[in-house]
Write a structure and sequence with these properties.
By secondary structure, the protein is mostly helical. The chain has one domain: Glycosyltransferase (Alpha/alpha barrel). The chain contains 13 helices and 14 strands. The radius of gyration is 20 Å and the shape is globular. The model has no long low-confidence stretch (mean pLDDT about 95).
């Protein structure tokens, strides 16, 4: 059956918006990387230059460079220079999570007060590096080699098959906490690392993390626990007093259920491409995670939009709407719809996903897209611009990837797929 994400007119509109997003993201350039953009698209100089933002912007500019967008290659190279230079710790290894806007007199980064080294941000170093390698950017291979070496040296815990959360700057003391969010983006970067390097280790690690998430979610009616102690025991009340935390909110995050669903399908597709049987749990789990997240999160409190968090019974806790959740929902609907169309999904399932896609794109245009390339990052429960968790417009990554997914196969991942000629033309 015809699906809206395969409509050439929609794909062309998404391509136009991708280019506008890239153009807006150019404003984030600062001397030591890419800064946090405020509401008007200007860098907030009161905030540090953060590793996760610099990596995400570098990744997006690599995706743009692969498409020949003017100026993107130079911006990607600027990001790589920041990651190989001021963000990198030459004494202890790894990368600072946040640095000052200017380097010291020797060109070294100045760590922001209180900064640590974090698995979440280190995952994005790998993602940026894999995209740089795929885009053929100078220094990309060296950065990727260092980033993957750091994964083995500092983050991976083989006894658990997952990554630690954070260290102090000297890599001497690790945090007792373990988080599913850092492991989610680690899964994402490992899938990209497998595509770029061909090293099966990264795919196997990603699959192992995905199985853990599947099993923990299945035990809780497909709601994913986010927070664990150092032995990976669930901490159900973690951050109950900070329910809207930007990275560790209390309870269940429907947007992560959606994101895990997509990653599960992408890993599954990679295994199928290798001629292997991925196991029924991967497609079954992706379906359940997606359905549960949509049921709990979408249009549940008297207004359209995805709530940020729920409790373990599915009751909304933080009712603000985050742009990244909506973007992930649109992208996951595309990926799940593609897989079901190829593997015997019912017409009702695919029609339902097509309806979801159309509804969510309309919601984005109505409420989230302020102007071409400019997206509100957070809305109030009444769908007005909000600032409780995410003031400003610091992130191009979720929107950019969502806009590309209708033109890409399920596997390989973004940069490799574009490099290998799998991006559908809109001309």
């Amino acid at each position: 059956m015809d699906t809206p994400w395969d409509d050439r007119a929609i794909q062309a509109e998404f391509d136009t918006e991708f280019r506008a997003v890239v153009d807006f993201a150019r404003n984030s350039r600062v001397a030591t990387g890419f800064g946090y953009l405020g509401p008007q698209g200007l860098v907030d100089t009161e905030r540090p230059v953060e590793l996760w933002i610099t990596c995400r912007m570098t990744h997006v500019f690599c995706l743009a460079a692969l498409q020949g967008i003017e100026g993107a290659a130079e911006l990607a190279d600027h990001g790589l220079a920041a990651l190989r230079g001021p963000f990198h710790d030459p004494e202890h290894g790894g990368w600072y999570s946040a640095i000052a806007h200017t380097a010291d007199q020797n060109g070294a980064g100045v760590p922001w007060e209180g900064t640590r080294k974090e698995a979440y941000a280190h995952a994005f170093v790998v993602l940026a590096a894999t995209s740089a390698v795929a885009a053929g950017r100078p220094g990309g291979s060296e950065l990727l080699e260092a980033a993957l070496e750091a994964q083995d040296r500092f983050w991976w815990e083989p006894e658990y098959g997952r990554v630690k959360e954070s260290w102090d700057l000297g890599f001497t003391r690790t945090e007792d906490y373990r988080g599913i969010n850092a492991n989610m983006h680690t899964t994402e970067c490992y899938l990209s690392a497998f595509d770029v390097t061909g090293d099966r280790k990264w795919l196997d690690r990603a699959r192992g993390i995905l199985l853990f998430v599947h099993d923990r979610a299945q035990e809780r009616n497909w709601r994913i626990p986010e927070h664990f102690d150092s032995q990976w025991e669930v901490l159900p009340d973690y951050n109950k007093d900070q329910p809207a935390h930007p990275f560790r909110p209390f309870g269940v995050t429907p947007g992560h259920g959606i994101e895990w669903s997509r990653l599960m399908l992408q890993a599954r597709a990679a295994l199928v491409t290798l001629g292997e049987e991925p196991g029924e749990w991967m497609l079954d789990g992706a379906r359940h995670l997606f359905s549960r997240a949509v049921e709990d999160g979408w249009d549940v409190d008297g207004a359209p939009g995805f709530v940020y968090t729920t409790d373990f019974d599915g009751t909304a806790v933080v009712r603000e709407r985050m742009h990244w959740v909506l973007c992930e929902a649109i992208g996951a609907a595309v990926v799940l719809g593609r897989v079901l169309a190829e593997e015997g999904g019912t017409e009702d399932e695919i029609a339902g996903l097509s309806e979801d896609f159309a509804t969510w794109v309309d919601y984005a245009d109505t409420y989230l897209r302020e102007a071409p390339g400019r997206w509100y990052h957070e809305l109030t429960p009444d769908n007005e611009p909000g600032t409780r968790t995410w003031p400003g417009k610091p992130d191009a990554y979720h929107v950019a990837q969502m806009l590309l997914l209708p033109r890409l196969p399920v596997t390989p991942t973004f940069a490799t797929a574009i490099r290998d000629g799998h991006l559908t033309s809109v001309e």
